[in-house]
Amino acid sequence: MSLIDKEILSWLRLGHGLYNSAVILLFFYQARLGLVIRKARKTRAPLPVAAVRRHRKMGPVLTVLGISGFFIGLTLVTLDERNYLEYWHHLFTGLAIVLLLLTTYRLSRKIAGPDSPHRAPHFAIGVVILCLYLFEAFLGVGILL
Known about the structure:
It contains 4 helices and no strands.
């Protein structure tokens, strides 16, 4: 028996999917900003100051939004009184995203100067996060259907 009406739960699941879809789009925007900054840095062109500001300002916010999406999903499973491992692919992909978000956030705090050794790992982990988010969305759509 579920702790919440099944119809309400189905709407909450849809809301979870829509929320995380918006988060994914924001992460792709964040990646675009990062690529613009990276390109300027690599070509020794003047840094796009507005893009740098937005990228730095959005990073912590997106980290919180991404982690919140994971915990919203866990809450939905709890409300439905299901086994957490019923959707284990989705669970562990989400957990990997959370861990990588925390890692890239921590790396970003260590980036200092144009030749920082933390830039390349920050970039690589960001690419992995985007790929995992796409896979996670694919798995989530499968759960909703």
